[in-house]
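This follows on from our talk about sequence and fold. Can you supply me with one protein entry, sequence and fold together? Could you add the entry underneath, on a fresh line?
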Amino acid sequence: MKRLLYLLLLLPLSVHAQIYERADSMTICRLLKKAPDNSGTLWFARQLLGRPYVGQTLEVAYMKPDAYGSDDEQLVVNTRQLDCTTLVETVTALTLCVRQGKKTWNDYLRALQTLRYRQGALKNYTSRLHYFSDWIGDKVSMQLVKEIQEPCPPFTGVQTLKVNYMSQHPQSYQALKAHPEFVPVIRQQEEVLTGQTFRYIPKTAIRNTALLRQTVHDGDIIAITCNKPGLDIAHLGFAVWKKNELHLLNASQLHKKVVLEPMTLYKYMQKHPSFTGIRIIRIK
């Protein structure tokens, strides 16, 4: 196994440390170097097709504190293994770098931290944006993305948030087990989110129509809404139009890798009873 690099690096943003392997920095630098100046999210996402799906890659310091010197929150970069959230963050950070003409490793670290943490400030585990609705709101406030919620139709659904899963299941999170003092902070964040409303496209409306093609663009971030108790978003990916049908490019737990889902998004959604529809986020 390649030696894991653990590096303390001072950036304009306050960063405690990063955890990554040499392969990660090489991948990021290679992609930034070869990317066309007008590259969007799909260009980068397609470069990551086939990467293995692995969950909880951001929790390594909490699961193995002795290996990393502590169980403090650290900026984890892992391009070798991705889940749906880290795929979206990785691709979005790369896209922001290219759009801003920034193509160095340090530029990428700044972009990734800016996306992953509240107002870009890495303080501890509670400063990470754990609920994707919180991520959307924070990045909208930073003018990095915008959420599309019109026209109506197709945005006929209304999601009223009621989130409490993390504070109700702290035993499911290594960091919360190790730091029970974080649970009240997480609960307060959940209370701020709860009651907020957002418009979404119901899964029955995800069909091949001129209206949907005009509304959802290639490369938009798709956040799948759900009715699972305590949660807001069940899965993430990128919109891909293929032969006038909408598909999802995602880090798939089912396929165990990053894939362009062969079935249409409409069919994919129908196979998951807890999925209710999609919210659409676009990089500005």
